[in-house]
Predict the 3D structure of the following.
Amino acid sequence: MGLPANTTTGPSSAPNAADPMSRPIPSSATDLPPEALALAAKLFDLARAGDTAALIPYLSAGLPPNLTNHSGDTLLMLAAYHGHTDTVQALIGKGADVNAVNGRGQSPLAGAVFKGHEGVVGALVEAGADAEKGQPNAKDTAVMFKKEEWFGLLGVEEGRTVPGMVPTARPGGA
């Protein structure tokens, strides 16, 4: 399954049902043909699995790098959350927005911090990801899950607390 080729050579007076390029532009996902929905599902699965070699040709053919699924997750969000550094770097190279948040307000950087994916965190920070984007943001996520090894990289301030989070006692009573 691939992207449909535009075989239209000029204006037409009537839509041709056999030509996918002659269909009206869908206004919602429910208006998409089953083939388009299947392709979209495949693309999100490729990002989730980290299959960079299979995913990137679609982006090179014109697939929007910030395509979102029903939850608002981008291809980058799924690749980041599942720890696929090479796929994350390739998506960034194709123009994926490192600060896009999903439908729950989560950023790719916060997801990678939560999951503990060091290479992905580094790639996103290097590409300019904002550690304060999203809810919870990457800084708060690092504090909540005690990812102290990333405090410096993320710019977590000494003594940062997360609103609504009850501080826990440090080992040794300090």
About this structure: The radius of gyration is 20 Å. The first helix runs from residue 34 to 49. Residues 4-13 have pLDDT under 50 and may be disordered. Helices lie at 34-49, 52-60, 75-81, 85-93, 108-115, 118-126, 138-144, 151-154.
